[in-house]
Amino acid sequence: MARFTTRNLRFTSALCAAAFLLSADAASAQGRHARLSRDLAERLSTGDVRDESVIVTGTCAQVQDLAVRHGLQVKKCLATGAVVQVPAGALAALADDPSVDQLSSNYEVMAHMAVTNQSIGADLVHKGGWADGIGPLTGKGIGVAVIDSGVANMPEFLGRIVATRDFTDDRGTGLDQNGHGTHVAGIIAAAGRNRFDETAGVAPGANIISLKVLDAKGRGVAGNVIEAIYWAIEAARSGSTPLGSSNGAASRVS
Prior knowledge:
single chain; alpha/beta; Alpha-Beta Plaits; Rossmann fold; 2 domains; 5-stranded mixed beta sheet; 8 helices; disordered C terminus
């Protein structure tokens, strides 16, 4: 009799434990909250209810179900989630949905030179006042010879490619078929196309002299590089090509 009672007690205890775990899981699911990116969490904490483009994790089918339940617009399915447009006031309900694991804002990304310019102090030089009596300096009137794969005439150079020479082909046009030279020139002297464009290279007012010594694969020969260097030095000495402004500003070789 004692053995039977012990079994019953064990069985009853097991049932109670299972019921407790099921109840805990149900409560946990009901109180579950999606993991939010910091900016979304801040928006909810401040009561910001504007519509928002967000990235939600899950399969495309799972996100489609969410869209139906919450009135979302699926903009694009991704490998591990989707970009959805959340209408005003619906973000909190979406974050509280037990089937949502993670939410992140579909934040803007952009290319910029801020880190480079700040690291080397170019931003201070652009503003001026870094030394007594010294105003802003942007490289205006200075010519920089870029000995590379050529430089494409991009809008960010604003017509400041003042000379082009092709050392890979006597009949070549100096066209950049690789992209590296244009990239280097952009770091040196790219500038915004208008007052709303904040693009700024290290010397956004400088002129560019494009001296091509590398082909479409980024390859060249030492002889052409040497020839380009001496060409740039001689041109700067003689003033035979527009390497700078009319006031005789010095040129630089890169």
